[in-house]
Each structure stands twice: as C-alpha cells, then as structure tokens.
Amino acid sequence: MTIQEERYWMYNRLLLGRKGLTVEFIQGVETFIQVASQLPSFQLDKMFRCPCSKHKNLAFLKPDDVKLDLYRRGFLPNYWIWTSHGEYEPHRDAHAGSSTAYETFHENQMSRPYEDLIFDVTGHNLRSNVEEPPNAETQKFFELLHSAQKPIWEGCSTHSELSIAVRMLSIKTEYNIPRECFNDVIGLMKETNPADNIIPSDLYRTKKLVSKLGLTATKIDCCINGCMLYYKDDAAEVTCHICNAPRFKQNSGKQRRPKKDVPYSRLFYLPIIPRLQRLYASMSSADHMRWHKEKIAKSDILSHPSDAEAWKHFDRVHPSFAAEPRNIRLGLCTDGFTPYSQTATPYSCWPVILTPYNLPPEMCMTTPFMFLTLIIPGPHNPKAKIDIYLQPLIDDLKLLWEEGVLTYDISIKQNFLLRAALLWTIGDFPAYGMLSGWSTAGKLACPYCMENSKAFTLKHGGKNTWFDCHRMFLHANHQFQRNKEAFVKNRIERSPPPPRLSGDEILQRLSNIPTIIEYPMLSESKFPGYGVQHNWIKKSIFWTLPYWRTNLIRHNLDVMHIEKNFLDNIFNTIMDVKGKSKDNVKARMDIKEFCRRKNLELVTTTDGKLMKPKAPYSFTLEQKRMICQWFKGLKMPDGYGSNISRCVDLKSARLFGLKSHDCHIIMEVLLPIIVSMLPDYISNPLIELSIFFKDLCSSKLSENALRRYEDNIPIILCKLEKIFPPGFFYSMEHLPVHLPYEARVGGPVQYRWMYPFER
C-alpha cells in the first residue's frame, strides 16, 4: 500500500454537503499530532509547524491550535510525507562514487528544528535530491552547514553546534540580553556540559558561526546631513565634500587605547542579490517562482500583476527578459516610522523593502517574501535626498538587469543566469514625491494632471483646492460641462482630460534637470517655472535604470491612504467634528466667493455676529449621538476588523483614533448605512463612492468593469462637488479619478498598496 493510500484521510476532510468532518480525518489528525509531538523541538518549545493550507509549515503553533487549523482549513496540498515533522522522503541513488557534503547531510540527517530555522531564514532547503552539482557558492553553503551540524557532545541527540548558537542568539534578541550576561550564561553552559562539548564560548564566536550560513548586512557611513555616502570612490574620505561635515565623532578625553572611529550616521544595506538567489535554492519557493508563466489566465480577469497591461507591455518591449520565466519582477516600498516611544525625541527612520511578484497570490506580498533592503537613518525625513541612500540598491538592480547572476534552481536542478527588473514603487503621497521627483505639494501636486491641473487657492481658506477639476474627465457634451450654477459660478468646461505622458516624454522633460547625486544642493533650490509650469524637484535616481522609461506605471498612488483621507474628510464633515470638519466659517465664505449656494452662505445675526446655517449634508446632534451609540454596540467578526467601539466618544459625539483598516471597513461597508439618514441627493453619491472603492479593492478585477469605473468616478466626484464646499476637495479627493487606470494597467490594488508593508 502506498503512502497516499494509507493517508487518504488527509484530503477527505468534509462530509457530503460540507455538513461536518469525517471520522477518518478526525482520527488521522490525532495520529498526526502524536507523531509531531515526538519531535525534539516540541520537547523544548511545546510547539511545532502547522501544516494547514494557510500556514504551510511556516508558523510554529501549539498542538491545540494546529488541530483547530487543520479542522478549519485542511492540510496543505500534497503533504503526504511529513518532512517538516520528522519524516524523510525515500532517496534515489542519482550518483555513485564518493559522497559530497550535500549527500552526507542527507544520509546522516536527524530531526533538527534549528537547521530548519536556518532554511527558512536563508531560503535553503536541502531535503531534495540534487541530480546536478550546484554552483560553487551553493556548494560552499552545503559544506558549511554540514560542518556546523556536529552534536554539541558525543551522544547528544537534541542539539548541534549550529542549533545551540541560533537558539542562544534568538534568546538574546528576544530579551535584549547584554553581551556580558550572554557570555556568562553560555560560559556556564560549557561548564555544566561534558568536557568535550563544542558550544561556542562567547557572543563573538556564536555570531561568527551563524554569519557563515546567513545573510550579512553592509554598513555604509553617510554624511550627517545626507549629502553623500562614503561609498565606492569616496569610501576613504573623512569629511563631506559638499557641506564639509566631519564623518566621525571626536573621541572625548584621554583613552588608554585608541577607540574605533564612530561615524555620525550610518546606512545599513542588506544586499538583495543573495536573497533573490535563495528563492531558487528552496524547494518551498523555487517552483512557485515560475507560476506567473505557467498559470492558466482568463483573458478579461485581473487577479495578479502578471495579468495586467504593465507586465505584458514590459514583456513585449524586453522579449529577452521575458523569455526566461525565472527572471524576477520586483516592487519597492518605503515609508517612515518612529522606532522609539512617543515620549522620546522625534526620530524618523526609513526602511526600504523589496518584494517579488513572480509568486502566486497566496504567497505574493506575504511577510516571508518581503526583503528589508535598506535602513535609512534619521533623525529627519530624507525627502529629496533619499536618492543618495538608494545608490547601493540601484547598483545591484543595474547588475541584475545588465549582467545577471549565476543562480541554482533546485526545483529543476539547473544553474541559470538570474536577472531582475523593478516594476514600480509603492508609498504614500509624500513618499511618491520623494521617489518620483515630482513634488506632491502645491497646485500641481497631481502627477497625472501635472501642469494641466485646474486646482486653485481658496481666497479665505488659503489652501489649494481641486474643486471643479473633474468635469474635464467627463465624456464630451455631458450635461455637467455646461452647468454654470452647481460648480464654479459662470464657468463652462471645454477642456479635454489631461494627456498621460509616456516614459520617453517625461524623460525628455527631465533632460535639463540633474539628479540629486550630481547636484546635492538641488534640494535647497527650485528650478525656473516650479509651481507654475512644472513641479519637478529632481531627476529621480530610478531613471538611471535602463528599462525605467519603458514602464507604464513607475510609481503607484496608494489606495490605502487615499481611501483613509477621503473617509476622514467625509465623516468629519457630515458629523460636523469641531476643528476637523471641512465645513467651517472660512469654507462658507469661500462658497459665497466661488459658488451660487445661498442656503449655505453665512448669515448676520441681529447682534452683528456671523452665523453658519446648518448644512443639509451634516447630521443633527441627536442623529450624531444615535450613530455613535450604534458604533458603540458594533461587533466585528473575528479577523474582520478591530474593535471600533473603543474609538467612540459619546460625550462629544465623534470617533477618534481610527486606523487605516478601520477607515477601509467604514468606507466600503458601513458608510452606506450611516448616510441613509441624509437626503437622497446627498446619500446616493456617497453610496456610489463606497461601492466604487469596494469594487476597486476586489481581489479579482475585470478590464471591462475598470473601464466602466473610469467613466463613473468623474461623475461621482462631480456630484460630490455639487454638495460639499470647495474646501472639501484637497488632492486626496482628486486622486481617485486616476485609480481605475492604475488598476487596469497594474493589476489589483492588493499588490500595490501599503497595508502589507505597514503591518
């Protein structure tokens, strides 16, 4: 009887009609739990890998949690042999003769959970038979791993030299143990074990052992003002040749022995090339990296970036790159965060993360495949100077495009030349300006409309508004275009929609603008015509990539932040939240200046004060309290959303502290319920906007539907312009007009927004 026949129960989970679990499956899961509980790692941590279809042996859980996951989701496909739970596949004699370190590893291997940890971290999986020898680099890794797998003393079956080192470093990191304490503890362990033990004697030797098998980080000193990196030709410099700032801190006082030079600022770069190579050295990911080419795609359905026009256009323009399905397409994301507590001195740190798009939807954009590449130091936002810090990464991306790197694909036992291309960047709107070089501030903030934007400055509000900037996106002769009353008074719209510039056209415009690397003082000056004819602050470093001009989308508008900001404006305005509502006194004064809406203009009372009449789009105090009471009693399903009831202030009848995902749920699910108390001519456009975002954020999109959204969103925005004051429409309320185009060209928004990176 084959192993599949013995374990048929693994994929016979549900009774007919999905009315419950089969008896065989329940008994089989109990058997599996008993087998997994015999692992030495379970005796240490009381946890083992969860083989359900969600976790796929990547997460360590307690037995009861594993059992519950298997009942809910079943086993991952084709997991007949429990290789991650102590069983081994039968080996083929592919080679005769002398055994290599790789083969010896297979012959002598016992269940070692911390070697498994190294496989996960470094991407190596040595549990498959290699029919052809790997390249020298991979073979060297096999030999190092084999040499580090000696038991810590003769007869020990629970730990090897490697496992004890990894375990101790994990404990040090988790509990922030000082070096001296670590050395004392590990010294005590050496004393209490047999005399011939090979436990590393201190932190230095422990790190040295693990570093041979893992991935290293490169430390690059940088100017404290962000003017330059001490990198390549400038590696030996001791002062910044731009601002003359010193590279190193001065040693204070007299020292018995000279200390090492300590730089004022340092960039950490985790080289991306080894990480991409190891995607093909792991059996858990190597075959999935060809999924985008081998999948069966439906012509009109977009469920992955590989289904969209940007990917297909790149293949047509670069056929030699597309001919090798193992070549990798990447996305880059960056955002600032404060690594310290809120009470500490403000410090803005900027990590840069790369993620590969070759993987199938269930693996793409997940944490194991998000590679932290750069850690840009603070304490301030790098702004336009971010290109200075991106230089090491761009150099590797050029190498991956122009030359490629020799890589071993363990799934088909071949060495091949790996190349990679950056498809686009992902970031919030300020980060969009930092990465693209087009400033996202001012009246020309929109990177699509550019100088064709019709944004203007409010006379009383003092801010830029995109009010009445959407009629030009309507089809010709639409009734809104001739309306002189509902929008800016006495204005008829005759302009066509702004053209979308190609990469070559943008590059031509940038021909006379230098990069920040060529002219570091660029961040402190503006080019002639800035804010009127253009909004360029620099030529982005990404234009040095040979293929960048051929990308249809180079920088993505972040749907997460656009949706959150739009919802905040809507909710604060209809709830009339003091200090946050866009319907304030200055907004009413601007209504009189630009619109014909007598019912919303300020009224002078008998004592000479200005009174703001109640707007039809805002709730009464009783309605606001009713809505807050409803939110207070609202309970979300587990895993669907956070506890919004904690964000309710019944006294002031408002919500506070909403997270981005809370706004996502309110916009797409709860907003239609909330606005149902408003008049139909107000509630209907808001419900249409809610449906627009809900459809746009679907995991599968239709090209025909997206073209329909492109036609509908300008109409929805025009309807909102007829309701809300001009001060309501900032850049975030304008950007949705471009989102359907980006979804049609780039694919579903789940692969191009900030949620997975911010989490």
Automatic annotation (TrEMBL):
Residues in DUF4218 domain copies: 696-759
Domain of life according to the entry: Eukaryota
Residue ranges constituting the Transposase-associated domain according to the UniProt record: 7-87
Protein name per UniProt: Transposase
UniProt xrefs under InterPro entries: DUF4218, Transpos_assoc, Transposase_21
Organism ancestry: Eukaryota, Viridiplantae, Streptophyta, Embryophyta, Tracheophyta
